[in-house]
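User: Can you help me understand a structure? I only have the sequence.
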Amino acid sequence: MTPNDPVVATEAYDYPLTLDHLLHTGLACSPARAIVHENHGRLDYRELHRRIGRLAAGLASLGVASGATVAVMDWDSPRYLECFFAIPMMGAVLHTINVRLSPEQILYTVNHAEDDVILVHEDFIPLIRQIGDRFDRAPTLVLLRDGAATAPGHGLEFAADYESLLDRGGDGYDFPALDERTRATTFYTTGTTGDPKGVWYTHRQLVLHTLGALGALASGGGHARLHRDDVYMPITPMFHVHGWGMPFVATLLGIKQVYPGRYEPEKLLHLIERERVTFSHCVPTILHMLLNAPVAGEIDLSGWKVVVGGSAMSAGLARAAMDRGIDVFGGYGMSETGPVLTMAQLERPALALPDEAQIALRCKAGRPIPLVDLRVVDESMRPLPQDGVSTGEVVARAPWTTNGYLKNREGSEALWRGGYLHTGDIGYLDGDGYLRVTDRLKDVIKSGGEWISSIEIEDVVSRCEGVAEAAAIGIPDARWGERPLVLVVPGDPEHPPDEATIRAAVREAADRGRINRWAVPDRIVLVDTLDKTSVGKIDKKRLRMRYANA
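Assistant: Let's start by predicting it. Here is the structure, written out as tokens:
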């Protein structure tokens, strides 16, 4: 041994990056802080810790061991939070089932993930009855319910209900020491083509994503900050990329948490008011739904911080939110990236900008959070300059990005070609490091040899008076290949927006060089609703199919 060799104590603890370590701070610093389940009760961090151990013991009594897969079909609840920890901490794999997929897709994910146990909320009993006889293996079922016992006659055999399973488990479960690279979770993408793809994460990846997201949220320069005095409520389903990873962040901080169950606008707004919620995250369609709910005008939303992701936030939606006192800002990522890659947090000088300039920044995808290596590249994987103009595909690396798709080597290799994860999005970086996503590769409108951003058309249209929602899609055109079609949902069906005014606004933006000159739509169609995916995004694939002959 030389004098410069490090000295390692023989009893030193290696401290693997496993999910159990995220529980320490809340238990030590905020043991009495509340975790609320809509109108069904509340617990504190001490009880959360006890229930995690009892859930693990109860699952072990059903035969769950290291390597098993336990699936959950539930609305957002403290039960789900308990599953986020107990199942992976056992060395088992948590499969968060997207309950908004079609029955056939859910059947596929259960069989593909090889679920051993499924925790089923009583609302989904009819769905399990519909597909249960086609399971490749017969999973053990555990019943979840929020109120009185379910009436007999549901025709399914349950090993236990959730609370009796915890009572059966008792206290004192001895969680095993795990390698931090043990697989912790699996869920399935909501792709619009082919079967859903299984995305998986290790303990190490989830812990590092938690720390990266927390580092970004704690460093906001005067806004968009998450701290220990905040009250957190997710409005992104917990089955969707671990609720964007934010339940792990909130639990690490030990802050008050509110879980709303099934998403209903009036209930969500009253929970924000009653529990004094200060931090949430959601997709644009959910925020639009809340702002336009009949009771929204009665609720004070000032001081509410909201990360908007999943798809681009329009300037019109951002302005409507800011007019209500909401600190709204964009975030960006995807199922395969954990999900968070960037956040559109503004520095103090930017907060003094006029509203129009400030909104333009808040609507961007944002800047990379700590530990993210994000680039915009050309077709040869060469990085493009950060000049606010040069557009290419967004690729990324981070210590938490998924290693690939479950049982899908070909898809995994395509995802990681060239050593970076390919997002399938196109965009550009400006000189301050802000990413602007201009479209999905599959959604860009190709007209007359030009690439037209559907997102930029939507951004212009969303600012027009009387427009509630807008979607721009490319439809076949014999001469130009594709032409833009704009679908508009009126804010007031009795007084719809003027189509000529909308077209003039797009033409003016093109004349000023804000958008491509080919972006002025030939047609604008007023519609009652826009098709949505299972996670609330506008489903442009379905819209293109529906209006292909328009």
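Now, to help you interpret it: The chain has a mean pLDDT of 92. The first helix runs from residue 24 to 29. Let me know which part you'd like to focus on.
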